[in-house]
Amino acid sequence: MPIKIPVNLPAYRALREENVFIIADDRALRQDIRPLKVAIANLMPTTLETEVQLLRLLGNSPLQIDITFLRMQSHESRNAPPGHLERFYIRSDRIFNTRFDGLIITGAPVETLDFEEVDYWQELAAVIDYSASNVFSTLHICWGAQAALYRRYRIPKRALERKLFGIFRHKVNERRSPLFRGFDDEFLAPQSRHTASDRDAVAAEPALTIQSEAPETGIFIVTAREGRELYVTGHLEYDPLTLDKEYRRDAAKGLPIAIPQNYYPGSDPSKQPVVRWRAHAHLFFSNWLNYVYQETPYNLNNL
Fold this sequence. Notes:
By secondary structure, this protein is of the alpha/beta class. It has helices at about 10-15, 25-30, 45-60, 85-90, 120-135, 145-155, 200-205, 240-250, 280-295; strands at about 5, 20-25, 35-40, 65-70, 90, 100-105, 135-140, 155-170, 185-195, 210-215, 220-225, 230. The protein contains nine helices and twelve strands.
């Protein structure tokens, strides 16, 4: 079954062209089933691209999913098209009387700041606190994972000597987790970050389980409460050319940026990258949605 999104959302046309299974909101109103309710706090500067990336993965499922986009009222976006957030997103404080099956909190380009220095920190912290008892399972991505680990468990982050940038091989530590059904022993995933959550602090916290990691990247996927909290330090959702765009953007600005590792054939930026993480990205999101579908109560008031 499809994801349900407004027919006039810009991502709608892109997803239809890719043959992703989606349904217009007016048609969904005529169906007698309860869709999964999933909210997305999209903090990425690439607003439209991130919408397509996440909806593409959420749409590769037999489940109907009702999507709600959240925006931080305390932050003024300079990258979304004029009026886009007001039209398709709701203020984060408007959800506090609502419950969701799932919530996704994306990354954000604020890694070099202390958490409390981020202009929307208090607003995001309120969403993280709210999700503990009002969302069945929350998926945190990159900085979103660091932020939630800090908010819930006081796990600090540290600056890396250089940006972790490229495609890296990760291993699965906990193969019995439903999140890794069908996974190979090792799998590839994109990373793009300047900081990392402290692994020793994560390992020392009894509520947290390190599900996947790698020597080069450190922890990759961490869970708590049997999967009701997921922390993913990388970007399985990235498109084939997302790292390429980041590299060329920073190089054009004269910023110190290395060629993304294990990405271009022969490390040659003139060559087209080969996608080697797409299958596991779809599998991970499908496994997460299936887990939520199987475990969340039909009546969300019973969370």
